[in-house]
Structure prediction request, 552 residues.
Amino acid sequence: MTISTTLPYDDLRDLLALLPGDEKHEPSALSTLDVIWVLYDRVLRVDPHRPDDPDRDRFLLSKGHGPAAFYAVLAAKGFFPVETLAGFGEFESRLGYHPDRVLVPGVEISSGSLGHGLGLAVGVALALDAQERPEPRVVCLLGDAELEEGSNFEAIQLAGRLGLGRLSAVVIDNHSSAHGWPGGIERRFELEGWSTITVSGRDHDAIEAAFAAAPGDRPHVVVADIPERKR
Amino acid sequence: MTTMRERFLDVVADALDRDPRVAVVLAQIDVARLCSRESARRHSQRVINVGIREQLMISVAGGLALEGFRPIVESYAPFVVERPFEQIKLDLGHQDVGAVLVSVAASYDAAEEGRTHQAPEDVALLATLPGWTIHVPGHADELETLLRRALEGDDRVYMRLSDETNRRPVHADGLSVIRRGRDDAPLVVAVGPTLDEVVSATADLDVTVAYLSTVRPFDASGLRAAMRGTDVVVVEPYLAGTSASEIADALRDRPHRLLSLGVRNAELRRYGTGAQHRAAHGLDAAGIRAALDGFRAAAWRVRNNGGRSAAARLAGVTQTT
Prediction:
């Protein structure tokens, strides 16, 4: 049950144009656009009319800075009116430069400070296990530079050890990590027992297939590469 | 006598049986102790050992709370409050979810282990965050009452367990008068496990002694009701002055003098026992008495200076209230 499109992908650039300000986070937002679109258009089982459905899939935006693409996709999918985008960052607006789950329908976690989402996602996955809900997937989006936060590795290690099969991470690889990841980002996850796949962060079919490739008996990471020229 | 820590584990084991919302998140500390209880083994999906990953411990609790569980987190105070402080702020508070955080070892129970396992700053730190209820029980029976009540809710609660304990529990909500002095006698507020030492230190003094085990929200109305003179002394088993601003605010329209006793903000660099550290920080009966005597002597000097307080003298005006 993937939600039906209310606005098409081609409208996303126009929706993004409605969001004023926050130039410093614009490249970050644009790098996530295609992955978030594919998740909401083809992968996640979520319903804008039932954002609290206990059997929905959970999408946790850990890379909370630069949420413009996230907001644009949520608006396109009907979680809130498109007109809301125009108030981005204003005092009375629901939409801040970092998303707040209390204010925005469809936002699972409040984020912005890097390195928090994956730990929360592990907790959500464990909760769904304890509730014996077999269906919901938990997907957490991070950035390659965000992985520098040590807290992520506590979560990567435990998720691997516990074999949290409903958990997927997607790392947007902007190649923006200060000191890089010799051997590749995937290696950090493989060592801890995750399945891994690397795709172009602009190729919608490949992104969809990458999430479909999750084995289900261990956590899965999709590294979405964003080529330099398209950032 | 059952320690607070053992009583905590007993109550948690019982709660796992009674309430399917209850989940326990541990970072290695006390895993074996809890899992020696049969109910913890029976509900193993709700007893999660994250290993020595204290930031993740709080994040996992946040994730569980997002899905409707009532998470309990327990470890040494530095590992529950200090290391994962941003996770407490964001993964619980900013997510608008609750949890019951429980610490052991308090300020100097782990005296022989040194500074790394001591957290006299814990209450002051948590008190900077909105929405936290902070309990400092003085007896295992108080702990059980407070913990069972906390587990029924969905808010953010911190419970500070200690090896120090009073001989008898005080079952009271808010600030409770233990012994009443004359009308204008100084009020001495003992927090949690400091009560017995306070009672001993003041046995021959004309003071009102009150007890408090829930320090946030601070019982301002209880303080105002109990205080009939101008002098108030608060004895806290953590960083001295932690509740000074709360007391100042509660008494903002009353002239008063405040003496805040607690753990000194200093690197003691000593090992030994908790009792030795208590004495070193002036929180044993003798130390409390010495501080009270000094406070009273200062009051005598003020009263014999023409009704002018030290502040008023410095300002060159006569105190009028």
